Amino acid sequence: MPDLCSMYNVEAIRAEFPILQQTVHGRPLVYLDNAATTQKPRSVIQAIVNHYENNNSNVHRGNHTLSQRATDAFEATRGKLQRHLNAAFEHEIIYTTGTTGAINLVAHGFRSLLGPGDEVLVSQLEHHSNLVPWQMLAQHSGATLRYIPILPDGSLDLDEAQRLINPKTKLLAFNHISNALGTVNPVKQLTDWAHAVGACVLVDGAQGMAHRRVDVQALGVDFYTASAHKMYAPTGIGLLYGKTEWLEKLPPYQGGGEMIATVTMAHSTYAPLPFKFEAGTPSIEAVVGWGAAMDWVTALGMDALMAHESELMAYGTEQLTAIDGLVLFGTTADKAAVLSFGFAKVHPYD
Question: pTM of the predicted model, to two decimals?
């Protein structure tokens, strides 16, 4: 077995997660469902408690001390996320309810931009969140939905992808990392192909942002989405990164408070970015907790985290493939720390 403590003091880090200190069925809890949602370190939980005990107030709407404190913390997280993704501007980071909310925001905006004869291209590797909104968009707009197939090893068929991307393609949507197979897709290559025909690119980064260094400017993507709860932060909050020109082009997703500049009985004008897409009172404590999670990840070091995951992945793959009758699904060379497998005639639940 490799030295899994070479990059981390694993036990010390495990001790930072209160939920992992319990026993289940008489044994210490082992949690392997991080692709679905991650557990929260004590610093994140304490940040949420501190917000409610000391700073609870609405943001951007009060001149009193509590509102100013809450607003400062809320916007500080936006700055951390901008730096983590290397977005050009803070206003390109839009708070959403999660990756699903972010994708739906873009899909709703494209309803006014697409029509019959246009094509939307997604891959067969997608989570429902990056599939159903595009099906709904196609039904509403009359556009045609096409799919990039996957190869037996779990990677995308890039030859077919290049053939499918054509001047009719108006939007290409695919995940950075597959939640089911761990496949890491060639984001830059696919984005360049799409831009060559004038298509917009959205990347589902629910797994990508948690497991890789992401530079949206280097990748060139038009939209990138993420969920906080995939990276040690609370549920119910996520982000949409969008290039300024695209965010200006899309109509608001929801109407209400915060997203308006002026309102009369006859007409309303919209607030500038990012508030144009942030209607209503947000999940303030979740944003504050996300800021604490970003600090926690930064302190660990993204490079060390990636190296540790790679070490675990190599060990897990070695051990599982030694089991007679076990079949691994998703065996492409470039993959993240996800191991999906079947075993003889045993049902997956067992």
Answer: 0.95
